[in-house]
Amino acid sequence: MRHIPNILSISRILLAILLLFIVLESDKIFPAYMDTSWINYFAALTFCIASLTDFFDGYIAREYHLKSLFGEVFDPLADKMLILSAFIALLVLHRASPWLIFLILSREFFITGLRVVAAGSGKSVAASNAGKYKTGAQIAAIAFLLADFFPGGEALLWFATFLTLYSGLEYTISYYKTLKV
User: Which domain of life, per UniProt (predicted)?
Assistant: First the structure.
């Protein structure tokens, strides 16, 4: 039981690779007669399953007190790899604005840098509700854009970008408040 959260993190990394493989190599792995919509749904399903592993590894680790150094490092890494592979897929498919993806990924790298600096100085800044909403909005936007059946996917991505930038600002302010304490 104690290894389940780590196994879920590793499976998220593997599913991130599979997602990118589905999108980049679909002509090699699916029959030519298969309708593109089925490939889109398969990519979206892969992404959604991988996203669920993020929820369950965190839930199981907290509920059963199974936190580990491996999990502390690889859980956020697996999250970033999944989001990165999904955004690369969306760029390849021309379904998302490169500017929005740039803003989202820049925030992710910036906050990761802040976390490293905070950890190096023995401080920790807890995740906020805005960060959780940001993650949910990103997952919804990516899933809809990958499935390519809902015309509001781009609007969801704009909303996710707003929440991403807002939560990044909130996190940055919290970090600087810890410096004054």
Answer: Bacteria
